[in-house]
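mind reviewing this stuff:

——
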Amino acid sequence: GSSAQFGETYRSIIAINIAGAAILLLLIGGNLVRMFRDYRNRRTGSRLKARLVAAFIALVIVPMAVVYAYAVQFLNQGIDSYFDVQVEQGLGDALELSRAALDVRIRVNKQQTRRIAERLYAVPEDELYGRLSQLRSAAGALDLTVSAGSSRIVASTTAAPLDRLPQLPSDEIMLSIRRDGEFAVLEPEADGTYIVRTAVVLPGWFGRDRAVLQANYSLGNKIGPLTDSVQATESRYSELVYLREPLKNAFILTLSLVVLITLLLAVYGAIFFARRITSPVQNLVAGTRAVARGEFDRPLPAGDDDEIGYLVDSFNDMMNQLGTAREEARSSEAQVENERASLEAILSRLSSGVVAIENNLTIRTANAAASDILQCDFAGREGQSVLSLAADNPVLAQFMEKSGEFIKEGRTDWREQIALQIEGERRVLVAACTPLPGSYRTAPGYVIVFEDVTELLRAQRDAAWGEVARRLAHEIKNPLTPIKLSAERIRHKYLDHVPVDEADALDRSTQTIIRQVEAMRDMVNAFSEYARAPELNLVEIDINRLITNVADLYPSYEGGARLYLDLEDSLPLISADALRMRQVFHNLIRNSIEALEGKPDGKITISTSLQEKKSQTRCKITVRDNGPGFPTEHLDEIFEPYVSTKEKGSGLGLAIVRKLIEEHGGNVIIDNEAEDGATIRIYLPYNKNERDEL
């Protein structure tokens, strides 16, 4: 049924393909006749059309012919290779081998049954069942059954009592027993497997009734299905051998029709697309000649929505744009000049520094903020190498060294923090770089925008540390008073009532607790003072007199250090909180004295002077000692809270100094001397207006 249906469908498909090929031949013939007529009449575009059609047909026919020849050869060889004589012989041998294997298995099982019958000779009937079970297990049989002829079952044993029931020997078995004395056959089971059923005469039993021993053996799950599979495969192969030639002819016919229709479609498509391409080319030729004559008012007819149509539309747009190109160029030039002036005005008012450099590291432009932050005058330096400017400017050299590393790594678009040392102070810049628009794969330059965020970062850290100090002071201060009162109460209550040796130990212990509580209270007060924003009482003070008064409190013999003053005369009065400034100088002097502890020639020098910077006058105060100086690795963080270089220090002294100076609108710079010692420089404005400007 399915083969007949397939044959009808196949014939219908062949008929449809032949009809389609005939229609295509008629269409192609008509188009070729028209092309020949146009070529003979020398119509514009006919020669180009003929060449395009010939080229397309050649490009299609040659590869299709090669593919067709190869496909036919491949089909013939492929189908013939499927029907090899050796394969056919091998399938027959496999079938014969499977049958021989089954015969061997049947003979083996029949011999096993004979041996079992011999072992059952003269076994009493009451012991027969037990003996049968032992022999079945030893032989691997599915079941063993002893019957008195075909009338009754004497004993039976099975490996699966629920699945296999003992049966009396059939007439066929009894007939074979009477004729040959034995029976063996291969039988299928309901689950698709096979068993070997055997039966032999059991001698010495039941007198005139012939005793029969039946034994069934399993072939396993593979032998039977494999035998069926070999037989089915051999049958299918024989059918295919018979259909070999019709199959080859059907494949070749189908392939030939497919190739023919493909060729016809390709030829018709070549004619169609050649006509589509050459039609607008004629118009483009005429339009090009018109443009060459300077005629821009003759647009071409609109093309189709494809590449040729886009070309026609682009040609029309080109003619329209050529008429206005000169005016637009002049307008663009004026606009560029205006935008450049506007950009320069915007850059000059930005607080962030902006530097634009060419790909060869020459300066394109820079604003005033960049000059202030990098302490380099960029005015009038356009076209100069930024590296040559950096050679004379240490701040610019640091900036270019760190930003140049990113550019050398090929990173043209980055955002990083850059730390610079400016006048001995660590300043942090947030810099971002982006490439200027350029040609493909090249960037003519870079724009680097940067801003000094040192004060912002410092304010954030101060706020965070202030909160930490406030919480720490609160948590520590609460238990101090009970601890001190408890120690005093123990001392008062038990000191006079214990033995002398124990009283001495009690006295030392309670005094130690009280002293340590007082020390912790002082430290807590320092925490509280750092966390609390100082309220300044600004008055006009003489800074030289204040320094002198503080220095008088530190005699030269204390700690072995000598204190020297080098104060500039006639300094103007400054607006400051006298109490807070005293605290600043006390902290600095004590810090130097502790650093000089144990040094017999220790020397501390405090000097004052005027400094002009950015058209502003500031008071410069320098505290210098000849101690060991600050550890180099701590210079950048020495003003941070809880950073101390001394074992007993709280780490708040210098932090409080910086906080108070910054509250006065000044700044503090710390550095080590070239030989020995440390230097702390303080810069203070003289009045409120200058402090606001700073």
The chain has five domains: 2-82+243-284, 116-236, 350-452, 459-531, 539-693. The longest strand covers residues 602-613. The mean pLDDT is 76.
